[in-house]
Write a structure and sequence with these properties.
heterodimer, A: about 220 residues, alpha/beta, six-stranded mixed β-sheet, four-stranded antiparallel β-sheet, 7 helices, globular, B: about 240 residues, alpha+beta, Alpha-Beta Plaits, 2 domains
Chain lengths: ~220, ~240
């Protein structure tokens, strides 16, 4: 499903944000990427959804070399992905409903269907009662849950989540991970970047350890 | 505007009819009135009573019959009219033509100059509108940069992202076109009202008329097109997608 070959990324010389990362993630896999701050977790995910280009290396997703997809067609790749951004990236002048529904709107989903799916997605993250609020009126934890609802609303093939539980209390964090677990059971490939060791230990999925941009270990393979 | 076609003394009825028909058929002629030599004499005596004695002493009627031709306002600026008058001058039965050629030629030059100035100013205004709309859209793109970025990341196609900006450009163009129609309407109504008397003879020559429906629609449609192209140009420069 996701294949990375010798990925190198350099923002500024002489430091490498990522050094020679090679890994294969099969369809339906659930992976944790962990490591200390600045180890390259976010960079790796941004390269996977092609917000960034690697300095070197190749990426194959769903059988296609993503680096060769022209910019005007990249939306097709993003449509098979649900992304939870570390900084949420919500539209603050739009209500929660519109934030989550945007993903469906871009696909041309009928309005009735959008209402149903958005409601269900918000119910999954216990935010259905905040559907008509603006994100600025929500707490960080609630904003994060809106971002999660947006990532899952379209039943994507791949979910990439960057610190999806960073601002949640442990109880809610486990609940959200439980939600990802259920989604994964339906065949969705999930990659979660987190440094929450307890969470990783509790769920026991495959783990990739990053340190200073290098893949220093794998567990559960 | 009037042109007078003086007829020869020996013009037959058939020739007179032929001249009259030819005049009536010409699209810039609005009316043709026959004035017999007797009517001309009578009119002269009424208009110039102090010269009546001289005419009476002549014993003969010196006035030829004539055709008084009213021309439409377009004749002033039309190139065809001079050619037509020259053609008519050579027609059998026509002795002479009284027509203010100099005046028509000056008006034609004036009309050409006005058109050229109009085109020049119009061109400048079209370019100005294009750049203004283009800049408005550029600012709009910058203001919504984050939103565009998020939309791209959640899988929005180029069309989905660009369409609102293109519509914005079209709406701006339509509003601009409609407003200019409104201002033009007010100008056409108010200008002659306030300046009518001071314009003097020009008031009769310049026809203050509003645009036709098709011209109005073209103006609004043109505005929409300028809005669309201004927006498109801005998007292709500032929205690298």
């Amino acid at each position: 499903m996701i294949e990375l070959y010798h990925i190198w990324k350099q923002y500024q010389k002489p430091h490498w944000a990522l050094s020679d990362i090679t890994l294969k993630i099969r369809k339906g896999d659930f992976h944790f990427i962990t490591g200390p701050s600045g180890s390259g977790k976010t960079t790796l995910l941004r390269i996977v959804y092609r917000e960034l280009f690697p300095t070197l290396g190749q990426i194959i997703i769903d059988g296609r070399n993503t680096l060769r997809i022209p910019e005007h067609r990249i939306y097709k790749l993003r449509r098979i992905m649900g992304i939870v951004f570390q900084d949420f990236r919500l539209l603050f002048h739009r209500r929660v409903f519109d934030n989550v529904g945007t993903v469906l709107q871009v696909l041309g989903t009928p309005q009735k269907e959008i209402r149903r799916k958005v409601f269900n997605a918000l119910r999954m993250v216990n935010l259905q009662h905040k559907m008509w609020e603006y994100p600025s009126r929500l707490s960080y934890g609630e904003q994060q849950r809106v971002a999660i609802a947006r990532a899952v609303v379209n039943n994507p093939k791949i979910i990439l989540a960057d610190e999806p539980t960073g601002n949640l209390d442990p109880e809610l964090a486990f609940e959200i991970m439980g939600l990802f677990k259920e989604i994964n059971k339906q065949g969705t490939t999930i990659i979660v970047a987190t440094h929450d060791r307890e969470l990783i230990r509790h769920f026991g999925y495959k783990i990739l350890f990053l340190q200073k941009g290098k893949l220093i270990g794998k567990e559960g393979f | 505007m009037i042109a007078v076609f003086f007829l020869s003394k020996d013009t037959s009825q058939k020739e007179l009819n032929s001249v009259e028909q030819t005049l009536k058929k010409f699209h810039l002629v609005t009316n043709v009135r026959f004035i017999s030599s007797e009517q001309a004499l009578k009119k002269f005596k009424v208009d110039f009573p102090e010269l009546r004695q001289i005419i009476d002493n002549l014993k003969i009627n010196p006035f030829p019959s004539s055709l008084e031709v009213s021309l439409s306002e377009k004749a002033l600026t039309s190139n065809e009219i001079l050619g037509f008058i020259d053609e008519m001058r050579n027609m059998k039965g026509v002795e002479d033509v009284q027509f203010n050629r100099d005046w028509v030629e000056k008006m034609q030059s004036f009309s050409k100059l006005t058109k050229a100035i109009g085109l020049f100013l119009g061109g400048i205004l079209i370019l100005a509108s294009f750049f203004i709309i283009s800049n408005v859209i550029k600012l709009s793109v910058f203001a919504r940069k984050d939103e565009i970025e998020i939309l791209r990341l959640v899988g929005a196609s180029n069309t989905f992202i660009k369409t609102p900006f293109l519509l914005e450009g079209i709406v701006l163009g339509i509003c601009g076109g409609s407003l200019s129609l409104l201002f033009l309407f007010l100008l056409v109504k108010i200008f002659p009202f306030y300046l009518g008397s001071s314009l003097g003879v020009l008031n009769e020559l310049i026809n203050f008329r509003y645009l036709t429906l098709s011209q109005s629609l073209s103006l609004v449609g043109g505005g929409a097109f300028i809005g669309f192209s201004g927006s498109l140009s801005s998007l292709s420069r500032f929205l690298k997608i």
